[in-house]
Prior knowledge:
single chain; mainly beta; Immunoglobulin-like; 4-stranded mixed sheet; 4-stranded antiparallel sheet
Amino acid sequence: MEGVVCDTSKQTSVVRTLVTDELGVALPGAAVYLLPKAPVPPSEIRTAVSDSQGHASLEDSGSGVYVVMALMDGFDPEWHSVLLEQGCSGSVKIVLRVATGPK
């Protein structure tokens, strides 16, 4: 994650994402997920949809290794591992590539 800022008085971590295509054009409407690397029930998966500028924000109260993933029709899925610490926030840029093969 980039630009990590921590505030120990906060109980949650925030991951801000920017979803773009390979040319750097923002992709509105991408599904963005934040989930722990360990198996969890669906209720613990955080979800958001990127806005008109490709931004989405996800919040979680856990700490540890998480996966940030973005999906959008016509593009291959992309994911990044991030380390979350309670009270910290940071940014992840996710670049989606146009799907080239059958789904």
